[in-house]
Amino acid sequence: METQSTLTGSKPFDSTDFLVVSAKTFEDLRIGDVFRAPSRTLTDAHAAAFQTVSCDNHPVHYDAEWARKHGHTAPVVHGLQVLAFTAPGATLFPHYIGEVFVNFSEVSCQFLKEVHAGDTLYPALEITDLIPQGGTGVVVTAATVHNQHGDLVLSGQHKYILRTKNA
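Structure tokens predicted for MaoC family dehydratase:
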């Protein structure tokens, strides 16, 4: 017995067609497309979990007195943790590109302002360049993270390789 779609009633359900958004190809992407991640308010627990995973035990990240003594208002969230919020999987980007993803080839960034537990972060990726290369294409994005005050705390760039229609 075939089951029919509960939405249209016209065709059998196929889990490979169950997409969050309609997938695009490299050729469908446009400079200026923006892929946001949900905002996140960092807690001491987030910082402690990252410290455990990264094995970064510098006291600037957990010792409030040490941080104050060295000019910080509070322990500083790990920069790589802030960068992690720009991971493509933290946004809708992988859903838009579907099965054409080949790899995440490059990342760079500048840490512009300190981030502390209690800050809310707003990460985004914006396509700044699309470079066709035959069977693949390079998608270049600006990676940004703002805090709850509108301050840009991280600015960077990601590059991804996608298959093109010529692949």
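The helical segments are 44-54, 64-69, 79-84, 93-97.
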